[in-house]
Design goal:
The chain is α/β, with parallel strands linked by helices. The chain has helices spanning about 90, 105-115, 130-140, 160-165, 180-185, 190-205, 220-235, 260-275, and strands at about 5, 10-15, 20-25, 35, 40-45, 50-55, 70-75, 120, 145-150, 170-175, 205-215, 240-245, 280, 290, 300-305, 305-310.
Length: about 325
């Protein structure tokens, strides 16, 4: 796909995220890393990685996608959101790009192969702002059976969402709130676009899991949690994986308390009450188990990011033979 189109007068409209920035010559978008240069929008962070690690896939978090596997995780600088609690603000809110080091898509994939990683995750900052780089890596990775994962705020453009089909295999989307005003004032983007994108990701058969960071006094009321749960159930289905994550003070939100376990459990109970089958509590060392939604047999047992037991047989419950929803190994 082209990542820009001609707009008014001499401007170019960036097509990477749903801000659709209209850029004059030499102007940079809201993300801080895509710039109108010589009649094209150039991704300034292409090949310039600011964070590079090997993580368990459970850390993304993805619980129904290749459990126990390793994922080569990378990010750049820049972001199209400005969340006050960002745990990666050192890179996401950074605009200075280190041009001294360049790594090509082929080199990234070679590292994944050498380290026996079954996937490459585009994470730490918002990957849609460096989609041209991520896409080229993902296409190269496909040649070797290596899958690609987005960890995203869900504010991709419609064009990128549709281009991801067949290229990006899984995504975890941060559904940060169910308040339009909170998105607008404190985060970035807008709620309705994130919701539309979640629906489209599911339509495009990209494995989708959702994370909500419960921030005390900001998005943790029973009413708001119930709205999130109802949206997931009614629009994405009861088998959608929902991760409820604990907040800890960071960046500009240092005066708020940590999320209490009682509040996490309250959200969990609301989700179960409304019929979500796969709900997990994160960031507190809570044991997260996956049970068969048909017979309640233990299928996967986890503690922190470690899988302690894996009882699937050919992706099926060993007791009743129901297939577990997700992407597994087939053995």
């Amino acid at each position: 796909m082209d990542y820009f189109i001609k707009s008014n007068k001499d401007k170019l409209k960036c097509l990477l995220c749903s801000y659709y920035c209209d850029l004059k010559d030499s102007q940079i978008g809201i993300c801080g890393v895509n710039k109108h240069i010589n009649n094209e929008v150039k991704c300034l962070v292409y090949g310039h990685i600011s964070a590079f690690n090997i993580d368990p896939i459970e850390k993304k978090p993805l619980y129904h996608f290749l459990p126990m596997s390793k994922s080569l995780s990378l990010g750049t600088v820049g972001c199209n959101f400005h969340c006050n609690f960002c745990q990666n603000h050192g890179i996401s809110q950074e605009k200075k790009i280190d041009k001294t080091k360049y790594i090509s898509p082929k080199e990234v994939v070679n590292i994944a192969k050498q380290r026996d990683c079954q996937s490459i995750s585009y994470t730490y900052n918002e990957p849609t702002i460096f989609y041209p780089f991520a896409k080229d890596i993902a296409i190269e990775a496909k040649k070797f059976g290596i899958k690609s994962v987005f960890v995203s705020n869900g504010f991709e453009s419609k064009e990128v969402i549709n281009d991801m089909k067949g290229i990006i295999d899984a995504i975890n989307v941060d559904l940060k709130s169910f308040s339009e005003s909170y998105y607008k004032k404190s985060l970035g983007g807008n709620l309705n676009q994130v919701l539309e994108n979640l629906i489209q990701l599911r339509r495009n058969n990209i494995h989708t899991e959702i994370t909500t960071l419960l921030v005390p006094t900001k998005n943790d009321s029973k009413e708001e949690i119930t709205k999130i749960v109802k949206f997931i159930k009614e629009n994405l289905g009861e088998n959608t994986v929902w991760h409820i994550s604990a907040f800890h003070p960071d960046y500009k939100e240092l005066n708020l308390p940590r999320t209490s376990f009682e509040k996490l459990k309250e959200a969990y109970d609301i989700a179960k009450k409304y019929g979500l089958k796969y709900v997990y509590i994160g960031n507190v060392g809570y044991e997260n188990n996956t049970y068969c939604s048909n017979c309640n047999e233990l299928l996967i047992s986890r503690e922190f990011f470690n899988v302690k037991k894996y009882n699937l047989k050919n992706d099926l419950c060993p007791k009743c033979n129901k297939k577990l929803e997700g992407v597994f190994y087939g053995y």
